Amino acid sequence: MAERKLGCATLLALTIIPPASAAPPAAHTEDPCVVRRVHEEVTGLRKRPWLGGELEAVENDGRQMRVAHLLAKGPLAAAGVKVNDVILSVAGAELPTMPLTSTGASAGDGLPGSQHGVPVVLRLRRDGAEQELQVVPSRLPDTALPYALGLKVLRDQGWFRDGEVTSELLSVAADDCLAQDARDRLLKLRQQAWLGIDHLRSLEQEEGTELHVLKLNPEGPLAAAGVLEGDLILAIDRIDFSTMLYRRARVAIRQVLDGVQPGRPLHLRLRRGDSELEVETTPPVLRGYPLAKRMGARLLSAAKIYFYED
Question: CA-to-CA distance for 254 and 105, rounded, in angstroms?
Answer without folding.
Answer: 36
